[in-house]
Amino acid sequence: MNAILARLSGQLQDGQLLDGFQAERWAICERVPKAVVFPENEDQVAELLSIANEEGWHCVPCGRGTWLRGGSEPRGVDLVLALSRMNTLLAHEPDDLYFEAEAGLGLDSLHGRVSEHGQWLPIDPPGDARGSVGAMVSLGCAGPLRAGFGTPRDHVLGATIVTGDGRLLRLGGKVVKNVAGFDLLKLMAGSWGTLGVITKVTARLHPLPEVDRTLLFKCRDATECTALASLIICAPVLLAAVEVLIPGDREEGQSDSTPLVAVRVLESAAAVSQAENVVTEQAGTPPFRCLEGEESRAIFANVQRMEEGAELVLRLSLLPSRLPELAMMAQELVDLCDPDVGGGARLAGHAPSGILRVIISRLDRREGGLDRALAVLERLRLSLEAESGSLVISEGPQDVVGPLGAWGDVGSAAALMAGLQREFDPGAILSQGRLGP
Amino acid sequence: MQSSLPKALGNDLRRVVGDDWVLTEPDRLLAYESDGLTAYRMLPGAVVLPKDTDEVSRVLRLLSEAGVTVVPRGAGTGLSGGALAGADSVMIGTARMKRIIKVDPVNRLALVQPGVVNADLSAAAAPFDLYYAPDPSSQSACTLGGNVAENSGGPHCLKYGVTSRYVTGLTVVTYDGDVLRLGGFGRELGSYDLVGVFVGSEGCFGIATEIEIRLLPRPEAVRTILGIFDRIEDAGRAVTAIMAAGLLPAALEIIDGPTIRAVEASVFAGGYPTDAEAALVVEFDGLETGLTTDVERAIVKCREEGARDIRAAKTPEERLALWQGRKKAFGAMGRIASDLLVQDATVPRSRLPEVLGRISDIGRRYDLTIANVFHAGDGNLHPNILFDRGDADQMERVERASKEIMTTCVEAGGTITGEHGVGIDKRDYMTLVYGDDELEAMRGVKSVFDPMGGMNPGKVLPDPPSS
């Protein structure tokens, strides 16, 4: 029995601890933890972190194990705290449009429950919707709907955090306007488990739209696609999402091989036609198809899942007006694909946010391919950063993420980040190195 | 009283900003003795008015080296005593930093200096059919720098969210004079949301000297109705019913009977019935074709909850008249009482009817006139306690009633301030919502931005429990 199990087994029930090959499924950035623990309540999380502090164990919190490949490789992975058993929906107040849940509650379960009351949490992070509420907040992940609804930081009203040294902090509340004290919730959203373990989340909900309609515009190639998207985002109407979808070269002949711009319009039944007209007028061409209801949701569910199975996922960003340039730059990345395996590289972009995802199914590693990839990525990252943009490796093999880091330059934030980590995690045991330069 | 600013330091500051922009004469400092919450007054040691990031940095470096504390100030319209500086502090005003550096219509962004007035940004964006959404009542006077410090709200934040939703990047100068560039639209930083935590930090972390702001397309159409109620609780229930029906108005505002009567007795009279106990302003914006059904559904909800009359604005002039009672409320109340204490607590909106009833009980028990005019859709109350500062007994009752109102709201699942900030006014009430660990964590975060503790001392956080 390893030392961690030996130290913890007295405190926990059977089945709350895993190690050995069972822990492999919980590898963080390909590093298998020495042990995985499934705490059942926030006091147990606090207790575990206190012990980890005494023992100097490196801990990584997670939810249901959906987004474990992201981020930079942590400095150590001794113990993974998986909050999947803390999955209770504690409250849903339809009249007040908020819910309160334990962090390990799956987004799919949440949606199942709140949709009965005609409500939803309009965040669509990459993945298959099994991801947990807490992980989504912790990683700050969002998808195409960020254009219309923002990212988790815009939805979270309150949270309970266990700091690295085991303090329980109850931040925010359940009201939508709250300026009592400094907004530490904003720090927690997107902190990648480096400041604390989120154990409970309160967030606002929205009424489900009467009509969910997606307008699909067909384009000849990536250039036309990004140019059209750049035009559509200037439409004088609030759009839920404007996504460019450019399939890989070798996907041609398949049903989804055409470059598309998908515009998601969430409106009342009375207003939806007018919204559609505004978009069409702006685009200068009618959509070739309109998807309604279930079909509209399905295409965006596919967008959520399109990173699945890919070896390398990059997020390039610049100001939205420069999306066509981003797509040109991405061409160099497309060439890093293994020509014989997989479907090549897809591009998918959140046009109103200026983010272009490059999804590479397999990296070409033949004849110095890896070194070539590293050189291209580094050069591209530097040139984007010089233009106030960024290149984030949101998922990738460790021989790529290791040398480059997931994030790149963080500018003048570095010193403040280090200071904040010392405040919340003085023992430096939490997800060290997963976020930051 | 003579300024306590050491002469040599004063000269150094003048060399940075120019002779005209360091104020030390007591009669000139008088304009800076309070913010919008006039119950607190004190004269700063000096006021310095730098013109850009570089000057702010050099001024802060001089002051931090001399160990002189600093209080930033925008237009001074804040309502929590956040921009108050004592004789041993220097106030840094943003009055000369009024430049709109850039409006980028394609990316829907603006870059501004902190002294730009909120409404002026929307005016500058108007030629592009864009605007800046958060609209505090003081928007024709308050500055964007002040909005950033307070994370300001406004009536239309119900649909569009508060300041933090719109600030995408900041240039910040910390107390030691360091210039930090945080965030920025069009990039994903592998760091914490430092812009997010800076917004609402009430001048305790540093001074924002450039602000990148997201603009929105102007809605095509606006529709406004006014529901008249005989009982304020019914108006409160109508608010919940409208929201629970899946409607999302741009604004949902309640004006209570005492406020209606004050407005109607003033030059601002908008024609509200003076025997009503509540008026509910419901406004929708967006695409023209969607508004008719939204308005109809809202009218049904109002009637179901007991509205005795519904008025709909048919012209822009009529719309302004419907808003009159809301927008002129504070001005009108100034006529009927010498002093006014504005509270700002927030409750979950379904608790409004009950909490409104309890607030009126509190008013009766302490024999005080409390007038409510507030952002009902957000559950953000603004009970205004009317009083006369010359009456010591009344002052004491005001204080006790005030605390009881906040306690009531916190017990109902709310918080002590929704948009005005804590400042000096509510810092002793922070313990109603936070325990020692949370307050200590907030002190810790401040110490990361401001290790010397020189930025806006004595604001937001209560003094730590003496050990």
Chain-wise SSE layout:
The complex is a heterodimer of chains A (437) and B (467).
Chain A (H helix, E strand, L loop, with lengths): L2 H6 L8 E3 L15 E3 L4 H14 L3 E4 L16 E4 L6 E5 L4 E5 L4 H9 L3 E2 L12 H7 L6 H4 L6 E8 L4 E5 L11 H5 L7 E9 L1 E2 L3 E8 L3 H11 L8 E6 L13 E8 L4 H12 L5 E4 L1 H12 L6 E6 L5 H12 L10 E6 L4 E6 L8 H18 L3 E6 L2 H7 L8 H12 L13
Parallel strand pairs in A: 2-4, 3-4
Antiparallel strand pairs in A: 1-2, 5-6, 6-10, 7-11, 8-9, 8-10, 12-14, 12-15, 13-14, 13-17, 16-18, 16-19, 17-18
Helix pairs in contact in A: 7-8, 7-10, 11-12
Chain B lengths: L6 H11 L4 E2 L2 H4 L16 E3 L4 H14 L2 E5 L15 E5 L6 E5 L4 E4 L5 H8 L4 E2 L12 H7 L6 H4 L6 E7 L5 E5 L10 H5 L8 E8 L1 E2 L3 E9 L2 H13 L6 E6 H8 L13 E9 L1 H17 L4 E4 L3 H12 L1 H8 L2 E4 L9 H14 L3 E7 L7 E5 L4 H20 L18 H4 L2 H14 L18
Parallel strand pairs in B: 2-4, 3-4
Antiparallel strand pairs in B: 1-2, 5-6, 6-10, 7-11, 8-9, 8-10, 12-14, 12-15, 13-14, 13-17, 16-18, 17-18
Helix pairs in contact in B: 1-3, 8-10, 8-13, 9-12, 13-14
